[in-house]
């Protein structure tokens, strides 16, 4: 999903508009996670960017997208650009546990 959301909508409070944007992102993530995984993929990972526009969008972890939207709203920006793309994720194996010899 690549989309620019307005933060100021006539007839609606800005706080409600920000919450609606967060709900839209959550719906998209939930919908993408329901898709079947390709062969050899462990989970759906998400590559996210958030910013005032496409050129200034910074890479953000999925868990920090909500906070970035809040910050854009608090900064008084007119709109916020969101890019949330699903990509295949692979779990890294942990090294085997080894006891220390004393």
Topology:
Layout lengths: L1 E5 L7 H20 L9 E9 L6 E3 L4 H10 L4 E11 L13
**Biggest beta sheet summary:** 4 strands, antiparallel
Specify Rg, calculated over alpha carbons: 18 Å
Describe the global form: elongated
Straight-line distance between termini: 54 Å
Structural class based on helices, strands and sheet pairing: alpha+beta
> How many domains, in number, for the residues?
1
Number of strands: 4
Q: Tell me what portion of residues adopts beta-strand conformation.
A: 25-35%
Helix and strand run: EHEEHE
Low-confidence stretches: none
Can you give the mean pLDDT?
Answer: 92
Helix-residue proportion: 25-40%
Strand order of the largest sheet: 1-4-2-3
Helix count, DSSP H or I runs of 4 or more residues: 2
What does this structure look like?
- The protein is of the alpha+beta class and 102 residues long.
- The protein has one domain.
- It contains two helices and four strands.
- β2 and β3 form a beta hairpin.
- The chain is elongated and about 65 Å long.
- It starts with a strand and ends in a 13-residue tail after the last strand.
- The model has no long low-confidence stretch (mean pLDDT 92).
Describe the structure concisely for a colleague.
This protein is of the alpha+beta class and 102 residues long. Helix content is 29%, strand content 27%.
Q: Which terms would index this structure?
A:
102 residues; alpha+beta; four-stranded antiparallel sheet
């Amino acid at each position: 999903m690549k989309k620019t959301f307005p933060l100021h909508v006539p007839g609606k409070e800005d706080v409600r508009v920000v919450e609606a944007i967060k709900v839209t992102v959550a719906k998209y993530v939930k919908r993408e996670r329901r898709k079947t995984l390709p062969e050899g993929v462990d989970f759906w990972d998400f590559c996210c960017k958030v910013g005032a526009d496409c050129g200034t969008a910074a890479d953000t972890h999925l868990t920090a997208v909500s906070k970035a939207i809040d910050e854009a709203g608090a900064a008084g920006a007119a709109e916020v650009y969101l890019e949330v793309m699903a990509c295949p994720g692979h779990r890294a194996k942990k090294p085997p546990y080894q006891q220390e010899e004393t």
